[in-house]
């Protein structure tokens, strides 16, 4: 039975839409996974010498033990926001001839193999090996230690689910736990009782008496049973398996009405962005990347490299354009058929998308004016880049959008989510960023900084003047690809 | 008037639709029936220019649908849930479609008032996104949205499926009134033979993309359809090539 469930799992992974059918994406994902694994592996190996360097007077292992509780707390917060138990996936199994407890066991045990649990494994175990080799601690004590910390980590894994499942509905039942955690944190913070240090003493005991590693194992097991029982009670369509529904407040974005013809779509797009997880994050990312410039403008390393400033300029004013624009019109994938058969000429639909992106560039540029603090030059660069984005990059993204044939689920988190990503998304980065940088660099080297900027600006203005013509050409392209897009967007599955 | 000539669609060497000639006069109420894979949705999708025909053309009021977008102004449709915008509430969706059809909010509000009974208090003012509505309620929204702005042509793919009995009865009246009172051309597909025969004045039966029956609805139609679908004739047609049944269809029409 477990074998069957595992094979289901494997299929859901390899056939998921975000994993994609393209080989390039697969290779990229594998590369990312390997990259992170290696980084953490090296962190595990390097931890010992690093600790030794920072705390030359202490034994690194004992020092680490003092930090473990803090680390676990951090892990819990991290997991709380990032990791969730995929209970909804088991809905189809509800009616099958499998006992409930078996399904729940499977889901819970499966969660142990998640990315978040493999990372600590990659840190703790190499660290333990290094310690065992370099110091007097025996292999047995290090094995005991590794088992302890790993199972503490796994306990956090289950504890997180417990919080999520209980916390979601019944805040009161969880109140005692919150109070305990806050008290512990308070005691630590105000130096009343060094809780984390005291906790480290337990791990020190494990080193002396490795059989004590049984305690975290038992702890982990208790959490497991607790979550399991909680889940079992919630294994109903109207309980744990229900997807959340909130009462909706109607917003109309009436102020968009003044934009005339395209306002209908602007209103729709605003709703799209505010009411769906994935597009909503692009807004937060935009605000976040607005600060990205600080990295460049404060760092003296880049002073002699105005090309980097241009890069920052394109990025700051165009981050929403890049994040949102590269998936136009996949955002409307779920109802693209309707859009295509409604009383909307293609040209108008595209014009509204271009308008939305253009507004974002203008707004981000206005928001970035405080950068004038770093000099008028900086502001000039950002403004020129915004002009280039408006004139050249917007039509460019609209054009590459016509090659988007992959559906996007609006409600999925965008992190590590490559759904909707195809070759077009990768290829567009080259003309989007590399071309303006290249042109600027060329004229900057040949003539001067000002000439380089001027050329970028002029290109932008030309693009703006040609906007109507370009949009006509783009519309033809969309009409040509229309059927393939409709077909592509119909391919659901994840 | 809608005309399809030499219309065909081929997927991987299989002909899924093959219509020599089909003419739907203005104001007619046409029912499309056929088993799964008969090509009903394919035909509708082509009529809406969502799928490109392999050969042939469809004309909607003399407009070639895959050449001009002008048919969109007078054609409305509801094929499936992918015609709904999941993150809007029902009202917002109606207003949105209304704006596309040059109807202001007051127009829409008074338009919706006549469907109060049809909605049965489950659609308006529920403060729910469309994606959170039940399948039946989603369907109600989609169907009513397709009637906004007095379209001349209305296309509904399986409008009766997923609806509760009361709503089915009310929907039948709405569809009948559409062609009788407002002179709208209505195209409906259904698996429910009773519903179609009650609602439609003409019924076209598709089998594997070919028109095998083209009937003017009468007392005997339901019986005829039931005999046809009970499979008595299917074995012969199974062996025959695609041309034979279409000839038969022509013969039917000649009568």
From TrEMBL, chain A:
Ion transport found in the keyword field: no
Keyword Transmembrane helix: yes
A Pfam family matched in the record: DUF5687
Keywords: Membrane, Transmembrane, Transmembrane helix
Transmembrane annotation, as ranges: 23-48, 108-133, 139-162, 174-193, 205-227, 281-302, 308-328, 349-372, 378-403, 424-443, 449-470
Source domain of life: Bacteria
Protein name: ABC-2 type transport system permease protein
From TrEMBL, chain B:
InterPro entries noted in UniProt: AAA+_ATPase (IPR003593), ABC_transporter-like_ATP-bd (IPR003439), ABC_transporter-like_CS (IPR017871), ABC_Transporter_VariousFunc (IPR051782), P-loop_NTPase (IPR027417)
Domain of life: Bacteria
Keyword ATP-binding: yes
Residue ranges constituting the ABC transporter domain according to the UniProt record: 2-233
Record-linked SUPFAM superfamilies: P-loop containing nucleoside triphosphate hydrolases
One Gene Ontology MF term: ATP binding
Segments traversing the membrane: none
Bias (Basic and acidic residues): 236-255
Keyword Transport on entry: yes
Protein known as: ABC-2 type transport system ATP-binding protein
Key words of the record: ATP-binding, Nucleotide-binding, Transport
Region Disordered, residue ranges: 235-255
Matching PROSITE patterns: ABC_TRANSPORTER_1 (PS00211), ABC_TRANSPORTER_2 (PS50893)
Pfam families (UniProt xref): ABC_tran
């Amino acid at each position: 039975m477990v074998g069957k469930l595992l094979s289901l799992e494997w299929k859901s992974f390899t056939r998921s839409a975000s994993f994609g059918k393209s080989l390039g994406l697969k290779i990229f994902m594998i590369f990312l996974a390997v990259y992170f694994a290696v980084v953490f592996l090296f962190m595990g190996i390097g931890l010992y010498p690093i600790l030794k360097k920072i705390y030359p007077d202490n034994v690194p292992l004992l020092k680490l033990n003092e930090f473990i509780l803090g680390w676990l707390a951090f892990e819990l917060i991290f997991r709380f926001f990032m990791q969730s138990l995929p209970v909804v996936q088991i809905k189809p199994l509800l009616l099958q001839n499998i006992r409930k407890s078996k399904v729940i066991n499977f889901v819970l045990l499966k969660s142990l193999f998640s990315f978040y649990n493999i990372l600590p494994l990659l840190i703790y175990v190499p660290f333990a090996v290094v310690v065992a080799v370099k110091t007097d601690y025996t292999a047995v004590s290090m094995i005991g230690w590794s088992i302890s910390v790993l199972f503490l980590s796994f306990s956090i894994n289950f504890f997180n689910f417990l919080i999520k499942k209980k916390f979601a509905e019944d805040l009161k039942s969880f109140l005692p736990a919150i109070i305990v955690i806050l008290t512990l944190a308070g005691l630590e913070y105000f130096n009343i009782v060094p809780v984390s240090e005291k906790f480290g003493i337990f791990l020190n005991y494990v080193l002396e008496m490795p059989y004590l590693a049984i305690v975290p194992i038992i702890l982990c097991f208790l959490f497991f049973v607790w979550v399991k029982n909680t889940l079992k009670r919630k294994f109903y369509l109207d309980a744990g398996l229900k997807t959340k529904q909130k009462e909706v407040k109607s917003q109309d974005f009436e102020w968009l009405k003044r934009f005339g013809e395209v306002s209908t779509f602007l209103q729709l797009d605003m709703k799209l962005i505010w009411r769906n997880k994935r597009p909503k994050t692009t807004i937060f990312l935009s605000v976040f990347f607005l600060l990205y410039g600080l990295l460049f403008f404060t760092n003296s390393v880049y002073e002699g490299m105005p090309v980097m400033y241009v890069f920052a300029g394109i990025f700051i004013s165009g981050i929403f354009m890049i994040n949102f624009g590269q998936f136009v019109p996949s955002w409307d994938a779920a109802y693209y058929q309707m859009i295509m058969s409604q009383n909307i000429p293609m040209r108008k639909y595209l014009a509204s998308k271009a308008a939305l992106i253009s507004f974002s560039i203008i707004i981000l540029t206005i928001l970035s004016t405080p950068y004038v603090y770093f000099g008028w030059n900086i502001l000039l660069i950002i403004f020129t880049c915004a002009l280039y984005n408006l004139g050249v990059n917007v039509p460019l993204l609209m054009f590459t959008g016509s090659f988007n044939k992959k559906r996007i689920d609006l409600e999925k988190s965008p992190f590590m989510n490559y759904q909707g990503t195809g070759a077009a998304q990768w290829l567009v980065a080259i003309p989007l960023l590399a071309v303006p940088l290249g042109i600027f660099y060329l004229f900057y080297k040949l003539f001067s900084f000002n000439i380089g900027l001027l050329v970028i600006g002029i290109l932008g203005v030309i693009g703006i003047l040609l906007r109507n013509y370009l949009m006509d050409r783009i519309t033809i392209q969309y009409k040509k690809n229309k059927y393939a897009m409709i077909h592509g967007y119909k391919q659901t599955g994840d | 008037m809608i005309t399809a000539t030499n219309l065909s669609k081929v997927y991987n060497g299989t002909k899924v639709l093959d219509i020599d000639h089909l003419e739907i006069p203005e104001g007619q109420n046409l029912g499309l029936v056929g088993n799964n894979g008969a090509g009903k949705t394919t035909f509708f999708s082509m009529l809406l220019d969502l799928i490109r025909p392999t050969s042939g053309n469809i004309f909607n009021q003399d407009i070639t649908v895959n050449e001009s977008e002008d048919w969109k102004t007078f054609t409305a449709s509801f094929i499936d849930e992918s015609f709904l915008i999941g993150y809007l509430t029902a009202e917002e969706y109606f207003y949105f479609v209304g704006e596309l059809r040059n109807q202001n909010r007051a127009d829409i509000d008074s338009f919706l008032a006549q469907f109060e009974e049809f909605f049965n208090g489950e659609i308006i003012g529920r403060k729910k996104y469309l994606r959170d509505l039940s399948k039946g309620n989603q369907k109600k929204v989609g169907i009513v949205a397709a009637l906004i702005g007095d379209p001349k042509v209305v296309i509904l793919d399986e409008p009766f499926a997923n609806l509760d009995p009361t709503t089915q009865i009310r929907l039948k009246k709405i569809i009948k009134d559409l062609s009788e009172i407002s002179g709208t051309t209505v195209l409906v597909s259904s698996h429910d033979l009773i519903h179609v025969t009650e609602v439609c004045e003409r019924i076209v039966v598709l089998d594997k993309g070919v028109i095998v029956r083209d009937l003017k609805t009468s007392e005997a139609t339901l019986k005829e359809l039931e005999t046809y679908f009970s499979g008595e004739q299917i074995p012969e047609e199974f062996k025959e090539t695609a041309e034979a049944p279409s000839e038969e269809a022509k013969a039917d029409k000649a009568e």
